[in-house]
Amino acid sequence: MAVFQIEYRSEILDLEYPVNVIYPDLSRVDKPDDTDIPVLYLLHGMSGNHNSWLKRTRLERLVRTTNLIIVLPNVNNAWYTNTQYGYRYFDALTEELPKVLQRFFPNMSKKREKTFIAGLSMGGYGAYKIALETNRFSHAASLSGALSFDGMLTESLDNLAYWEGIFGPIHQFQEQAMPLLESAELSDKKTKFLAWCGEQDYLFHQNNLAVEKLAEKGIEIDYSTSPGTHDWYYWEKEIETVLKWLPVGFKPEERLS
């Protein structure tokens, strides 16, 4: 595998923007001359960044014989949104970043059926939001995603200024605790969705509720649960499930030499 650490000038964010890219090892994949390589945008959670998946998991090793480009972007703690304080992370990721990457990696597919997105916790929310609102991803997966804010955002919430800086007046979330329902209204219903959450995770109730409510909007989710908490130990295991679910010919690590 090759891991590229890229920093480019983002016109949308007006700053130097970092992103990591895992590129297939051409000596190990079945189609080394492929000019239409599938791509997975893999999103981090709160307090993480573009290095989190590489530092906390064996992701690079897992995909070493899979013909798949993995893009690891960074939004700090901005929830993959266009924030109230002017940083348009949603636009930067959905409009600018794909164009920049296409110049670096012309073999990266532009086709929807070969473009995927996934994330954990805050990144699970981001993956669903981006997939629902752009209709550019054939598959979207969430691991322990913050898919609903039900019971989370209250007047007594710590650091209220932060949350309002991201989403706006807090009362809007008390009235609408699941902004993904609004995102679902923009969906063409063609994307396939997967979600997993640990049964001891503090977001377990929110995942159950979100799956139910999104189904009412016509968003069917392949949802599974198992014993687990909000922890990298479980996300490292479940990312294998995501990779097996994607149509990329993923080969589990135990088969590798």
- Structural class of the helix and strand makeup? alpha/beta
- In total, the number of strands is 8
User: Class, according to the CATH hierarchy?
Assistant: Alpha Beta
Individual helix count: 9
Strand content: 15-25%
Mean pLDDT: 93
Rounded radius of gyration (Å): 18 Å
Helix content: 25-40%
Element pattern in H and E: EEEHHEHEHEHHHEHEH
C-alpha geometry:
globular
Q: Biggest sheet, strands in spatial order? A: 1-2-4-3-5-6-7-8
Outline the low-pLDDT stretches. none
Largest beta-sheet characterization:
8 strands, mixed
Mind telling me the CATH superfamily name?
Answer: Alpha/Beta hydrolase fold, catalytic domain
End-to-end separation in angstroms reads: 15 Å
Number of domains: 1
CATH fold category name: Rossmann fold
CATH architecture assignment: 3-Layer(aba) Sandwich
Pfam families: Esterase
InterPro entries: AB_hydrolase_fold, Esterase-like, Mycobacterial_A85_antigen
EC number: 3.1.1.-
Keywords: Hydrolase
